[in-house]
Amino acid sequence: MNSRCCAFFLILLLSGPALAADVPLMAVNPVGLWLITLGIAFLIAEAALPNYGVIGLGGIIMFVIGALILSNAELPVPMIIGLGLLSALLLIALIVRALKTRPRHAVSGDAGLVGSVTAVTTVQTDNAHHGWVQLQGEHWQVHSATPLHTGQPVRVVGRHGLLLKVAATGAVRHGE
After folding, report:
1. DSSP one-letter code for 28
2. Is 135 found in the same domain as 57?
3. Pairing mode, strands 163-168 and 153-160
4. pTM: predicted TM-score of the whole model, two decimal places
5. Residue 24, domain extent
6. Measuring CA to CA, how many Å separate 111 from each of 105, 120, 145, 158, 174?
7. Is 126 exposed, middle or buried (0-12, 13-18, 19+ CB in 10 A)?
8. Claim to verify: residue 87 and residue 127 sit in the same structural domain
9. Among 47, 38, 45, 39, CA closest to 95
10. pLDDT per residue over 93-150, tens digit each?
11. Backbone φ, ψ for residue 160 (5° rounding)
12. How many other CB atoms are there within 10 angstroms of residue 114's CB atom?
């Protein structure tokens, strides 16, 4: 449905000026019109696809080359350059916005676990240095150098297989 709306809008956009032009349609170079049309289509696709400017750059280049081909139809060159610069600014804004949405840090694996703070849910009765925590939706067995108690906040300082090494949040030293 969305592609149909874009195609309909593109046809309206291109047919209006062509029908209202004072020059006959045969005097207009069809290669220039097709390059401008594809350039506009590529710029629209750039807004919809996550490709960080590859298609948009091609769209700007096609748009400007198509406009230069049509410059025989007495289009002002400053207008062509202005539209090219406006398209380039739009593309840069889209790229900046796309780069801002990229994740900054790992949220899974060891990088997501180490440094996390959680509370001890249960402590083993026979050994107070071992217990269990709930972290990232999973139940983990933990080991601490100091005795643990239920509800105590701990920070993950390492992982060995399925066993997390933790320390009380107030007792965590750099490099532990």
Report:
1. S
2. no
3. antiparallel
4. 0.40
5. 2-100
6. 8, 20, 22, 10, 16
7. exposed
8. no
9. 47
10. 877 877 777 766 656 666 778 888 999 999 988 888 999 999 888 899 999 999 999 9
11. -130, 100
12. 14
